[in-house]
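quick q for whoever's on today - can somebody do inverse folding on this one?? i tried earlier but teh output was garbage lol. tokens:
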């Protein structure tokens, strides 16, 4: 059973930055498309960014130019660099790849 473990969430002021990490127990990111989703209170889970097996990123419009998805060379960890954070980015962030999901990490943007 593959496990995905997110880390890096926290409280940050508007305009600040955070980097989320998602560590996989196996090198699945070379096999499956990976991605980050988020879910704010009272809202549906939404796609934030994806990374193809070939390394091509795609972003939801509201995060383009502010967020960057990437992965490390051993294909065991993906990242979400989040800059210029806004209060509306507040949510639980989940990583996913293939059929697997992480447990989520809370990101709160507030002054």
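ok took a stab at it. sequence:
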């Amino acid at each position: 059973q593959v496990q995905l473990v997110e880390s890096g969430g926290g409280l940050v002021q508007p305009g600040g930055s955070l980097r989320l990490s998602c560590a996989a127990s196996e090198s699945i990111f070379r096999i499956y498309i990976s991605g980050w989703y988020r879910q704010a209170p009272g809202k549906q889970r939404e796609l934030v960014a994806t990374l193809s097996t070939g390394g091509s990123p795609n972003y939801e419009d509201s995060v383009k130019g502010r967020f960057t998805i990437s992965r490390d060379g051993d294909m065991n960890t993906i990242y979400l660099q989040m800059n210029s954070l806004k209060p509306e980015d507040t949510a639980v962030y989940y990583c996913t790849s293939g059929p697997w999901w992480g447990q989520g990490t809370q990101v709160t943007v507030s002054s």
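fwiw Residues 37 and 48 are 5 Å apart (CA to CA). also The first strand starts at residue 4 and ends at 7. so keep that in mind when u check it
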